[in-house]
Design goal:
239 residues; alpha/beta; OB fold (Dihydrolipoamide Acetyltransferase, E2P); 2 domains; five-stranded mixed β-barrel; two-stranded antiparallel sheet; 33% helix; elongated
Length: 239
């Protein structure tokens, strides 16, 4: 084999090849990180619930941990977060302030109700009064994106989990900005229906890694083919 590489093209190709391979390796590292994160979240969701103080001590790592609370709902203040049910119909997450026995205010997503049961008067059995113990999943708030509709303040309907804005509208001073999503323990009358926590992590790192490695292979193939076409790379004996 005889190979006389063109210096400029070779340097440029080597830099680009290293860049593409580096991106592929980085995506493989991201894949391992994402798999570990998914495994940790699944462990959190199946572990015994923690008391509130233990949850608070975790800081940002409290996300998706189960928490046990004791206190009372303030059923005079209620808001809703719009969602889509499993059959594609609109549903509303019933968000109610909850004051713990030691006086800390939190927002509880008690679960979903259909449109025709949004008015609490239509589900009086589901209004829980008095001392209550609940278990839920600790979720960080979010404020939606550019295309998220603004809240319907008159009807107290939000389209994201902006707990600060919800609390302000309800005139509640939150101890923590989190939203606790109640577990699937049935409520009287069947509504709201808890256990609506959905864990979805976009995980396309393997596809991305394969794409970068294929691009690197394609670049190498083009580089070799070009040098063959201009007679700078020959296989076998020189004639």
């Amino acid at each position: 084999m005889h190979f006389r590489p063109l210096p400029g093209i070779t340097i440029a190709a080597a830099i680009l090849l290293a860049f593409l391979i580096g991106l592929g390796v980085w995506q493989l590292q991201r894949l391992q990180w994402k798999l570990a994160l998914i495994d940790q979240v699944n462990n959190n969701l199946t572990a015994p619930p923690l008391p509130l103080d233990r949850i608070l001590a975790l800081g940002p790592d409290a996300q998706y941990h189960r928490v046990a609370l004791a206190g009372r709902f303030d059923n005079t203040k209620e808001a809703f977060i719009y969602g889509i049910g499993v059959e594609g119909a609109p549903v509303f997450h019933d968000v109610v302030p909850f004051t713990t026995d030691d006086g800390r205010a939190l927002l509880i997503d008690r679960g979903i109700v259909p449109r025709d049961l949004r008015d609490p008067a239509t589900r009086p059995r589901g209004i829980v009064s008095g001392e209550t113990r609940i278990v839920g999943v600790w979720r960080a708030p979010d404020t939606g994106g550019t295309f998220t509709p603004p809240p319907d303040l008159k009807s107290r309907i939000w389209f994201d989990r902006d707990t600060a804005a919800i609390a302000k509208n309800l005139d509640v001073k939150l101890s923590q900005p989190a939203l606790i999503e109640a577990d699937a323990t049935p409520n009287p009358g069947g509504w709201p229906r808890g256990g609506q926590t959905v864990v979805t992590f976009r995980n396309e790192h393997l596809q991305y890694a394969i794409t970068w490695f294929l691009m690197a292979a394609g670049l190498l193939a083009v580089y070799i083919a070009y040098h063959v076409s201009v007679g700078r790379l020959t296989i076998g004996k020189k004639s």
